[in-house]
Amino acid sequence: MSEQQVNVTRYERVREILNEAAKDSQADYGGIGRFWDRGAEQLKKAVIYDIGLIAPKPASSCCGHKADQSDCHRGAASALIRGLKGESPFDGSQFPRLPWGGIAVSPEDIEYISDWIDDGCPADDHASTIELSIQAEALPSGLSVREIAELNVAVAGTRSPSRPGELKQRVNLDCMTEPELKRLGDAFRHLYKLNKWPEDVRSYNNQALYHQNHCQHGWERFLPWHRAYLYEFEQDLQDYDPDIMLPYWDWVMPQYRPECAQKGWIIPKSFQAFLTVAQAEKLIAELKPAPSEEQKLAFLHMAKHRQRFTSQSLFFRYVYNVIGYRYLTPDPQNENRQRMIDALLASNPFFYPLRYPAEYGGETINQAIHYHYPSAEDIRQIMSLNNFRDFGGGSIYDSAFGFLDQNPHNTMHIWTGGMNPDYGEGASYDAHKLASSSRPAKALLGEKRNSMVRVGGRALHSRSDLYSQPQYGDMFSNLTASYDPVFWPIHVNVDRIWSEWQRLNPSSIPTDLDAILSPWNYTVQDMLDTARFGYEYMRCSYFIPVGLDAAVGRIISQPIPINEVTQGFRKAEIRLHWVPQLSRSCFVRAFLNQPGADAQTQLDGNPHYAGYLSIFGHGACYGGPGHCDTPPPKARDHDHRTRSHNAPRNHRIDVTECAKKLLASNVSELQITLVVIGADYAEDTDLLKLEGVSLNFLD
């Protein structure tokens, strides 16, 4: 039977599909670049961070016969196909969908590539050819051989995947990237959705209920109880996304202007109200009557420029007085107001309508509540305390609030809860009416001193509750605070301050270490060590994947932007992650902003030389086959032997002094260069393997 001949081979068509999807993306996939462009044989060998992209050829077909013609289901088993479909680990949990930085490949094209893999990844068969033998392509080198690796910061988040012996990192909320915030927000949305099943303990409301019914305040269990609570909630989030960690909100950073807090950011920008373009377009279509063309453009402009508002009341006043759309009132039954709240909630999972930060009827928190926003000096004084009773609270025999519990903790509840300016009769979004009818916060507080935050009869997190107009924000009360997502970064920061105080005062601990922290079975003693629960605190961290497939003699990162939020760090570290046992000794020199550094680079007086570490080599193996093999990351079930001496290790280099000096000279980026030096003081290019490198900034 004759066949129609075509000029483009199936492999070339695969390349076209992937190049069209990748567009202008500069992703380098750990140093191998566009792996699909290097020939069919090399594509079959391509590895991204220990993940082979093409599944091995099966020994037999799916029918049990020798697989000499078609590798049945080989395509479906390949990481390349899973990656194109956005399946684990390319679902955002570890890596983004393939191709990185591009657009999604259509299901039809994915099936085409999968069929090509099933047929053995032929290099030169044409699209019309039914059967061709595979012709190997002779390329001069493999994809994973690199003596000098120039590497990007991880595109799937800035922190390394957790390995045994590595801690996950709780980072500064204001240092998180948009992809990281989206992943965290998706996990929160997942818990919100579970509220549809009231008996599901994983639901957000049931997690919040723990605090409502069991929270400990005013004595020594305040800090350990909340540490347990944060851990439990974090585990709930990790059931959805294993790499999620709760961030902390450092309230005394310069952007919050503690000396005049009502003129600062008020709350983190990631927790403020804003509209996405998609939600703005949906809202415009739903508003009745429809906005004018000019008003539509104003809504879209607000969304495109991600204009943010610290509360719903400020958002509605902007819509009413600036955009000029006036078909809304503070009435909870007003349908346009409800539509706008729906749009704000859909745009940002961290927005909470019943939150009125820094709003006290035109007065400051000092004037209305007689509290002041916490300052760096407050924290310094608290950190100078040298006993747990003063710092964290007294025992049952000598009970007292700890100073950390009073201020800043209590203050931040009051600050973020605030007083609803639209509560009560006569409320209006009209700026002119508001100016003529506002009353001092003290008068309002005096009138309703005993009402405070209402709890009974509410269906918390229901739409009817989120549309309501309460007198105070939910953070104003211990009974409702945990329903507002801003509760979590505030309490994570309290825990961070405690962990730092523990470092300075390791022998100062609560009195009753055996007390059970209800409703869980943790004791106070259990909660004294954060490492036991698998986390540490980090202002921010930038992970550079390298890969264990080949040794590398010199590592050069791409420049890493260091923003103002990061620059107030206390300590900077370069970490080498998951380094297998080395057969020879070496040392690794670290340079910042000197990409040309090598074994001969001058060290004395060099402002770019950051430090070094030495690694003691294992030597030649003296055992039988497998004796010196790298053990698997996780031991078998019930294998309780001590860790293998060949287990990979993690290494650290303190680069604080070098980093601070460079950043003080108006540098806004840091670039890492690591040079591996052997015993002969020459570069050793075939020794060091590692999973990755990270640049870390600690408070």
TrEMBL record:
Protein name per UniProt: Tyrosinase
Residue span(s) of domain Tyrosinase copper-binding: 217-234, 484-495
PROSITE patterns xrefs: TYROSINASE_1, TYROSINASE_2
UniProt keywords, alphabetically: Copper, Metal-binding
Q: Does the keyword Nucleotide-binding apply?
A: no
Record-linked InterPro entries:
Di-copper_centre_dom_sf, Tyrosinase/Hemocyanin, Tyrosinase_Cu-bd
Single annotated GO MF:
oxidoreductase activity
The family database entries (PANTHER family) matched by this protein are listed as: SHKT DOMAIN-CONTAINING PROTEIN, TYROSINASE FAMILY MEMBER
The record's section on Pfam families has:
Tyrosinase (PF00264)
